[in-house]
């Protein structure tokens, strides 16, 4: 079919462009895209052309790699393809210049994708296992929807969604992943990370501690230094809200935080629920009590307005995301503060390290110790039913199901996280060398584990192209013995 032809050809094209570039340039750029694209377009396609509307059906080809056609990094490529389809008449064919124009700006990303060089190379196999975990968790019953905030009580306990985003921007979602819900306490690590990024660790921890409290998240209780125990409980988050953008008015603070969260989410869905905000204010007696207690103990920085800090805290808890946008936020933390789908540095490495440390020890209310023991990953839960999970250097996950257990964590979210580390070696203390009973999705299978240099041997249809003549790659430093070794690998292709 045309679609199968497209998948085969585009994989070979982008793979070949990268290989030839290794031997044709030594510049700081990975390849000379114009020359490589032209060379392989004619080498592989020669007189063969494809109908534009079929050749440019990228969606199916990208799905297996984990990339979405809506990925911001592919914006230019997708626009060029759309324009080519719109301008084509009948069976208009693609030529070399059109090909170069469409994929040239994204050749590196496409090469990584089709060479399976992303953090999770076998993405389709991985996501099929994720789906299995999702359905297992869906079978978990019981729990109650939070009802002390009226707006939260309106959600069905049967809602359940899981979305993930890797540090390379691979995406997967299953279930109710496009329904907006409020971050609630899941905003606490994001708020803290921004405070550390802006003011520094030392300044922030003058006002808030680093220890788990062992108490319910909304207790009127401080540590021995008369500071909130950590930024992941209500008292700590209220104090942190007073440290953000000091000297600014309420509107400026809110806009500042919203812009930051949108950067974290790669400009995906981030909104504000005014109804939840009003509901929080009307039913927030406990938080007002905490605020006055903090004021009595002089926990706020000099000149801070306690009521303004509470208002800002209520606003932050009322910010809406979806599982999809929330997973990108988690992936930004997993990626050292760099948003995977935009490449923007949102947070400093110091802010991310501190945030993940506190999420690991304090992020799951008074279930934090159990979660750290069994799951061993940084996470933060919220009474909306959200669980923001970070697998450092691999991916971020957002789970959401409004049915909560007795301590306020999502029943399905907890079950999913536990099953995830039971299947994959994601626990912080899984031994990667000797713990062979778990799966490592970062590994390639079969002949794909062979070093990238072995891709000298490229197959297109039934014809093999062997780059054995060093005249084809005059800048190569490989000696005769290495070339012989490459020839010996032909049987693997």
TrEMBL record:
User: Which controlled-vocabulary keywords does the entry list?
Assistant: ANK repeat, Hydrolase, Repeat
Is Hydrolase one of the keywords UniProt gives this record?
Answer: yes
Would I find Hydrolase among this entry's keywords? yes
Query: According to its UniProt record, what is one Pfam family this protein matches?
Result: Glutaminase
What EC number(s) does its UniProt record assign? 3.5.1.2
Catalytic function, reaction form: L-glutamine + H2O = L-glutamate + NH4(+)
Q: Which InterPro entries match?
A: Beta-lactam/transpept-like, Glutaminase, Glutaminase_EF-hand
Q: What's a single GO BP term from this record?
A: glutamate biosynthetic process
| Gene Ontology molecular function | glutaminase activity
List each copy of the Glutaminase EF-hand domain by range: 54-121
Bilayer-crossing regions: none
The text of the family note is: Belongs to the glutaminase family.
What's this protein's name? glutaminase
